[in-house]
Amino acid sequence: MKNLRLLQINNVHLTGRFELLSKELRWLCWHKCPLKILPQNFHLENLVVLDLQHSNFKEVWNENRVFNKLKVLNLSYSKNLCKSPCFSRVPHLEILVLEGCINLIELHDSVRYLEGLVLLNLKGCKNLRNLPKSISGLESLETLNLSGCLQLEKLPENLGNMMALKELFIGGTAIKQPPSSLRFLMNWKGLSLSECKEQFSGSWLPRFSSWLSPRSLNPRTLLRASAVSGFGTLVKLVLSDCNLSEDKIPLDLGLFSSLQSLDLSENNFRILPNSISGLSKLETLYLHQNKSLSSISGLPANIETLSASGCSSLETLSFSSSSELAVLYLSGCCNLVDIQGLNLESNMQVELVGCDNLSSDFCESVLQCTRTNYTPCNRLIIFPTSEIPNWFSNQEMGSSISFRVPSLSVGDFRILYICAVYTCTEMSRMWWLDTGIEWPQIKMAVHNKTKGYQQVILPAAPGLLHVNYSDNLFLFRWSILRNKFVMLGNSYKIMELVSGDEIEFSFDLGAFAGVKKCGVHVLVDAPNIMDKNASDVQYICSDAVTGGIFEDDAFVVDEVFESDFSIGNKVCENDIVHRMRSLKVNGVVFEGHVATH
After folding, report:
1. Please, where are the H alpha helices in 179-287?
2. Among 4, 17, 146, 423, which residue's CB has the most CB atoms within a 10 Å radius?
3. Boundary (domain end) residue, out of 502, 523, 541
4. Of residues 478, 481, 480, 479, the one with CA closest to residue 534
5. Which residues pair with 494 in a beta bridge?
6. Which residues, 6+ apart, have CB-to-CB distance to 489 below 8 Å?
7. Is residue 328 within 8 Å of 351, Cβ to Cβ?
8. CA angle 536, 528, 460 (to 5 degrees)
9. Which of 587, 594, 589 is nearest to 123 (CA)?
10. Alpha-carbon distance 486 to 503, whole Å?
11. Which residue range is the domain that position 536 belongs to?
12. pTM metric for this prediction
């Protein structure tokens, strides 16, 4: 194994001579590593990515270890780690992830030597009490995630010197007052202040108001335009669980002219602030668990995703005629009676679990559009009903159904529909009362009985098991091209439909919900609107349905290396890091100005 470059040995206890392992390793992935410190004879001098999540380290390496080529270090959820390693001999580190290291109390002062550090993730380090002052000298740092650092009370006052900083996540901390120097940062893309109830009630309110509202500035202060313009570049703003209402919001949201994503969940709004309507670039709006919200209107036409699940007082919802909405989550809006202006042809995902007061005519119109719209896209619909549409050609009682693939002409565009009627159990209600967490998504197995192979996917359905005792229908629609379709969920699964094959679909919701009946239908007379020379995936993959980037760690490794190492190509270090930034690892998106909050 002299030329071995990728080594993935998760949950393995190795003994023996580490010096016999390849000196050419570029990527080491060893989750649940039992070692307390990396052995001196473990040759890692050429390592670019070191992924040691959920490991047993108390001390990662001796201070004399040199890692000249290391660019990515992930020690997430290493619960025995009390102090970060010394970074003085890791000069080229770009990504440092310490998320969930719950006993970490100190970040080594040598972090100041990481001149090329782009991302620092300390999310959930709940015993971290302070940051070294030298952190403000990280001139390349773009993302700093401190969410859930419960003991952290203060940020370095000169944090505003980090001129490259684009994203700051400080929700769920004990920070009492933001440094005044933050107002001078000019490249803001993301700011998360979730769970900052006390801060917005106290000293944060006047400080943020003075920074963000030109009306509060005197003529002399107005000359310092940077006091306002820096925040005008924000793309993502998170203000969830901040005890806000339409009468008590310290910020004029209209000032955030570049905003694309806004999270106002778990607040006390009865109606939305008027200023939201002026956010012409807003694409995603989160309002879930606003228990007092009674109506939603005046949304910008550019909105693509609206999530308002759990708004139990919501009665009416209206969209403009030019709305571009593609994804709508309204599960648990039990008093919702009317949705106006919804363009059903543009919607790829609609979830209405527990919306029992919506008219049957509205639900029927959703189904009808799903059937008659031949646009080449994938779609997921969930709403209250106990009946499978009568146009489904194959229906069965229970949680599984088999059908024989009809005759399909190669190259023609077809549509596959799969649905099931389910209801939640008493166990799901008890789980929700105990934890406040909804149970994970449904598992769907696809078994080709003729060919003898099976695939299991987790369809992306965030509100699928919202606690509710009425029957609900979920309906998946997949486009088929060249007799192939892509099962979208936790990863891409491509399956071929061959005329005459017997296919079985089965659904598993565990003990938390039961499937009463299910159905499958292949539409074989759809107009052929596809370019026969086009790529399968180009047409039938939809990020709006998958939820975006893959989260499975094993898949991440395969995705980065499969096309290179498996065919003997050489991968340069910069290419590895570039791809790492483009993938979602441990809840952080390294590219695209997003990090979870």
Report:
1. 197-201, 204-212, 219-222, 226-229
2. 146
3. 541
4. 481
5. 486
6. 441, 444, 457, 458, 459, 460, 546
7. yes
8. 45
9. 587
10. 15
11. 379-541
12. 0.75
